[in-house]
Amino acid sequence: MWAFIAIILGFVNASSIWDKVDSRLAEAAADSIGLDTAISWNAAVKTSALLMIMTLGTVITAYALACTSEKLISYFAYYDDKTE
Questions:
Q1: 10-26 pLDDT, tens per residue?
Q2: Is the pLDDT of residue 84 over 60?
Q3: Is 41 part of a structural domain of the chain?
Q4: Are 5 and 66 in contact (CB under 8 A)?
Q5: Residue 33 covered by a domain
Q6: How far is 16 from 51, CA to CA, in rounded Å?
Q7: Contacts for 62 with CB less than 8 Å, ≥ 6 apart
Q8: What torsion do the CA atoms of 27, 28, 34, 38 make, to the nearest 10 degrees?
């Protein structure tokens, strides 16, 4: 269950970061004369690196969930209480 929650929270967090970057770009475009950058290179590299790490964690979690899902689903078939 924790793997599914980690995947969902990863997507929610990535969406939140994307929205913040979009709002920063819109704010910078409104107040800009065209000679500045909306996001510094340091912030862009840090954000990209953190998102890549979060994506790797999400991929590993999704793989672990996929590997165990067959065993979890077939658990109920092996231990069925309906015996005659």
A1: 888 888 888 888 888 88
A2: no
A3: yes
A4: no
A5: yes
A6: 11
A7: 3, 7
A8: -150
CA dist 78 and 60 (Å) reads 28
Confidence of residue 69 (pLDDT cuts 50, 70, 90): confident
Is position 48 within any domain? yes
Mean pLDDT of 58-63: 85
Rounded-to-integer distance, Cα 32 and Cα 23, Å: 14
Report the distance separating Cα 59 and Cα 7, nearest Å. 8
Among all chains, which residue has been given the structure tokens 């015996």? 83
Euclidean distance between CA atoms 53 and 74, whole angstroms = 32
Tokens of 38: 């909306």
